UniProtKB/TrEMBL annotation:
Organism taxonomic ancestry: Bacteria, Pseudomonadati, Pseudomonadota, Alphaproteobacteria, Hyphomicrobiales
Keywords: Cytoplasm, Hydrolase, Nucleotide metabolism
Active site location: 76 (proton acceptor)
A single GO molecular function term of this UniProt record: nucleoside triphosphate diphosphatase activity
Recorded catalytic activity of this chain's protein: a 2'-deoxyribonucleoside 5'-triphosphate + H2O = a 2'-deoxyribonucleoside 5'-phosphate + diphosphate + H(+); a ribonucleoside 5'-triphosphate + H2O = a ribonucleoside 5'-phosphate + diphosphate + H(+)
Family per similarity comment: Belongs to the Maf family.
Keyword Hydrolase: yes
Name used for this protein in its record: Nucleoside triphosphate pyrophosphatase
Single GO BP term: nucleotide metabolic process
Main localisation: cytoplasm
Localization in the cell: Cytoplasm
Top-level EC class: hydrolase
General function of this protein: Nucleoside triphosphate pyrophosphatase. May have a dual role in cell division arrest and in preventing the incorporation of modified nucleotides into cellular nucleic acids.
Amino acid sequence: MSKGIVLASSSVHRRELLKNAGIDFTAESSDLDERAIEAPLLESGVGPEDVAAILAEAKATDVSERHPNEIVIGADQTLSLGDEVLHKPANMEEARRTLLKLSGRTHQLNSAVVLVEGGKVTWRHVATATITLRALDPGFVGRYLAQAGRKATTSVGAYQIEKEGIQLMERIEGDYFTIIGLPLLPLLKELRERGEIDG
């Protein structure tokens, strides 16, 4: 008999990906302070891929305490520009600065997904997508943000490739789901192999 599945995320995009894939799940976000967990990791030199995995594990483990008999999916994403790790912009001005910083440059989106059962991590996967933004005119950035609105502050790169953000791109290497923030194909494969979803 399959266990229940809980997505430990408040992300509308991750919920939509699972829903569109036909997965029966509930969603509950963690109350952990992600920046407080992340800061010492970055200071000690932990790479952005591992930071994403550790944050995904922390969130899923936290939610698993309230759902010990279910499979909890945790996910997190970091954006790395060279040695710098960027975060979701707090406001539209930060979104503007983020886009100008990424303009004409190549960055990585590191998306981690984990499964936690009874408080223990039973599976993890990290996928990386490489994205190059075209050289952006500051005036265009302003017009783009006016069109995108507050959605720009819900994404670590201040863009959504599924919407207007695709106009910012010059080159993408990696799959759509990794960019959205949930490596869906490896996750579905793992759930199928466990007999949790039909396969």
